[in-house]
Specification:
With 404 residues, the chain is α/β, with parallel strands linked by helices. The chain has helices at residues 18-32, 47-52, 56-68, 81-86, 96-104, 185-202, 218-241, 250-259, 270-283, 311-318, 328-344, 348-366, 372-375, 387-403, and strands at residues 11-15, 40-44, 70-73, 107-112, 129-134, 143-147, 151-158, 164-172, 176-180, 205-210, 245-249, 264-268, 290-296, 300-305, 369-370, 383-384. The strands form 4 sheets. Strands 2-1-3-14-13-4-5-12-10-11 form a 10-stranded mixed beta sheet, sandwiched between helices. Strands 6-9 form a two-stranded antiparallel ribbon. A two-stranded antiparallel sheet has the order 7-8. Bound molecules: NADP nicotinamide-adenine-dinucleotide phosphate (NAP) and magnesium ion.
């Protein structure tokens, strides 16, 4: 082995829980540290440490990502009642991803890893479809009410200058439910900008879909914001790259997507993105092949896997069994972060390493060695291995590629 690749600036490293915490360590030891002199600021977001610090560690990590420009995050447990007992928690902490997104703002891009030889459940989808989900507002920040008697529900806005706007939502003759949601125009604008930038970088068309025929003010504001920003700042660059932006209604977009070959970025409002990202990741085969990056305003990037901590595998691991848990998405979180760091610090060797490691991982599966979850998607007879064996193969291939 020749000398290791150096990093001039650290990235924020957010460790997590259960099986992915085990994978995290294996990925670093087997696939990263032999090649790169890793520089990270380490934050332990494992549930135990979140409890010890009253969750302060999560906010510290969010600040570190903002300060350093790049972060990589392991999957973490979002506590529920059962976890309260299991970990003897002081309180039921909020989802770490929720805390990070609330602090960093921005857009979550979920992109499947395409492996030649692994079939998608939608046969036409031969190229990736990246879901760009607006990570702010709408129903996720809504206030709701249940009423048990007849009455009038109203929408009232009181301006800072004291003026008022008022609209009747509904005149109830009996019990009912009401919901009030909002979004901020600056958040929508940064969502749109993140999507245009991502599409340019990927060299792929951008779709945006909403329901402005029904939601003539709310969804219309999204559509207008995208269009205005496109006309003002992006049309020319898109045309130069040979890619396009187009808006269509969400129901039309769903129908078109099914008939497409993939290979585009699909921007969606918060709820649409929540629902469709799970459908699209399942269609591409496995949650373990779905990568995720939060792009926040000001060029800040947080990379992670889309899946959770794989609890069922962890319990088997604790009993001493070797598990065949797929490290791909977590590995790609690291390569994404290292590549971005390489870009930001002008480090071509780090970028080349990220490319090589990704290529090695994809080739390992394409040539028949893989974890159990994707074996059924492989046409021929695959060799199913445990996570560690898989990573060792990937590291060997990476070394070959780097010698090149
Ligand atoms: P999960 O960890 O994604 O696992 C669900 C199932 O999907 C697994 O049991 C496994 O199926 C399969 N799977 C997921 N990732 C895999 C991988 N890398 N390799 C192989 N199979 C994989 O979801 P969950 O069980 O609903 O949630 C577990 C914990 O994760 C929860 O505490 C939740 O709060 C947390 N979570 C965190 C995040 C995050 O940090 N971003 C996201 C989601 C969930 P089989 O068991 O059938 O093999
Ligand atoms: Mg969801």
């Amino acid at each position: 082995m020749t000398s290791k690749i150096q990093m001039s600036r650290p990235i924020a490293e957010l460790d997590g829980d259960e099986m992915t915490r085990i994978l995290w360590q294996q990925i670093k030891e087997i696939a990263l540290e032999p090649f790169v002199d890793l520089k990270t600021e380490y934050y332990d977001l494992g549930l135990k440490m979140r409890d010890i610090t009253d969750d302060a560690v999560t906010l510290e990590a969010a600040k570190a990502i903002k300060r350093l420009g790049v972060g990589v995050k392991c999957a973490t447990i979002t506590p529920n009642a059962a976890r309260m007992t299991e970990y003897h928690l002081k309180r039921m902490y909020k989802s770490p991803n929720g805390t990070l997104r609330a602090y960093l703002d921005g857009t979550v891009f979920r992109r499947p890893i395409i492996v030649p030889g692994l079939k998608s459940y939608v046969p036409g989808w031969v190229k990736p479809i990246t879901v760009a989900r607006h990570a702010y507002g709408d129903v996720y920040k809504a206030v709701e009410m249940k009423t048990d008697q007849p009455g009038k529900a109203e929408l009232v806005f009181t301006g800072a200058d004291g003026s008022q706007q008022r609209k009747t939502i509904f005149d109830f003759e009996g019990p009912g439910i009401v919901q009030g949601m909002h979004n901020r125009l600056d958040s929508i604008k940064s969502f749109a900008a993140a999507c245009f930038e991502y599409a340019l970088e990927a060299g792929e068309d951008l779709w945006f879909s909403a329901k402005d025929t029904i939601s003539k003010t709310y969804d219309e504001a999204f559509r207008e914001t995208f269009q205005a920003l496109y006309d003002l700042q992006y049309r020319e660059r898109f045309e130069q790259k040979g890619i396009s932006y187009f808006y269509t209604l969400i129901d039309d977009a769903v129908a078109r997507a099914i008939k497409s070959r993939g290979g585009f970025v699909w921007a969606m409002k918060n709820y649409d993105g929540d629902v469709l990202s799970d459908m699209i990741s399942s269609a591409f085969g496995s949650l373990a092949l779905m990568t995720s990056v939060l792009v926040s305003p000001g060029g800040v990037y947080e990379y992670e896997a889309a899946h959770g901590t794989v609890t069922r595998h962890y319990y088997r691991y604790l009993k001493g069994e070797k598990t065949s848990t797929n490290p791909m998405a977590t590995l790609f979180a690291w390569t994404g972060a290292l590549r971005k760091s390489g870009e930001q610090t002008n480090n071509p060797a780090l970028r080349a390493f990220s490319d090589a490691l990704e290529k090695a991982a994809v080739t390992t599966i394409a040539t028949g060695t893989m974890t159990g979850d994707v074996a059924a998607l492989y046409g021929a007879m695959p060799e199913v291995v445990d996570s560690e064996t898989f990573l060792k193969k990937v590291a060997e291939k990476t070394e070959e590629l780097l010698k090149g």
